[in-house]
Amino acid sequence: MSTVIGFVFGTHLGNPWTWMQLFHAMMGTFLIASGTAALNQWYEREGDGLMHRTMKRPIPSGRVTAASALIFGIIISLAGFLELCFAVNLLTGGLALFTLASYLFVYTPLKRRSPISTTIGAIPGAMPPLIGYAAASGHLNYEAGILFAILFVWQFPHFYAIAWMYREDYARAGIRMLPVVEPDLDSTARRILWFSFALVPLSLAPKFMSMAGNVYLVGAVLLSAFVVYAGLQAATLRTLPGARKVLLASIVYLPVLYGLMAFDS
């Protein structure tokens, strides 16, 4: 989804594109993202076996061996990288490879050391729009940067809410998410609220940078207010249902915002 919206804006510069180009961008991204997820599950297989929310994943449940998962993850990651490099362009392949490397070799091991991992992990998490934009245009510009910034900031209320909801699970596996390190939840609640507010100007930026029109503007204002309201409730009440509302608000926000962008771009 995030790759496609980047591709949509990359076509606005008048660059010629084909449906096969979009197909290869989507398939290559699908393969390398899936490979990254598989390799991450291979790396975190012991911790996954300790958490209720992950113990039924293929490796800890015994349905897939660790060796098979490793081989599978490497093969489909390599296939996705090669497809992006040779069927799309080298910039797209390079961005995808950076996403995989920063996720697996920086973010994943950092999760057991410091809550700053959430910030670091938001970088590869926000790369898909750049991959899509580069696939369509062959380069990056401020439009791609705005799409990256929206997705980067969106991840903080989304993942802090998840960490809040499953902090006991994370603690059991030794993953140092912010609610685990600071169990009073003050920092988590504040950051959910800060980043919810930070989404407001970023959500409006596509309109004022001539990327989208007034229909998008109205929708972006309403969506931003929805997320901020959920963030205010979570920060004020400090309850598990409040964190769940933030998660649900973030899940609604992103696909609807992307739909408005595509419709009114």
Shape: flat
Helix content: over 70%
As for the CATH topology of the largest domain, it is Tetracycline Repressor, domain 2
CATH superfamily of the largest domain: UbiA prenyltransferase
How much beta, percentage-wise? under 5%
CATH hierarchy, class of the largest domain: Mainly Alpha
What do these coordinates show?
The chain has two domains: about 140 residues, UbiA prenyltransferase (Tetracycline Repressor, domain 2, Orthogonal Bundle), CATH 1.10.357.140; about 120 residues. The longest helix has 25 residues. By secondary structure, it is mainly alpha-helical. The two termini are about 15 Å apart. It has 13 helices and no strands. The radius of gyration is 19 Å and the shape is flat. Helix 2 packs antiparallel against helix 4, helix 4 packs antiparallel against helix 5 and helix 8 packs antiparallel against helix 13.
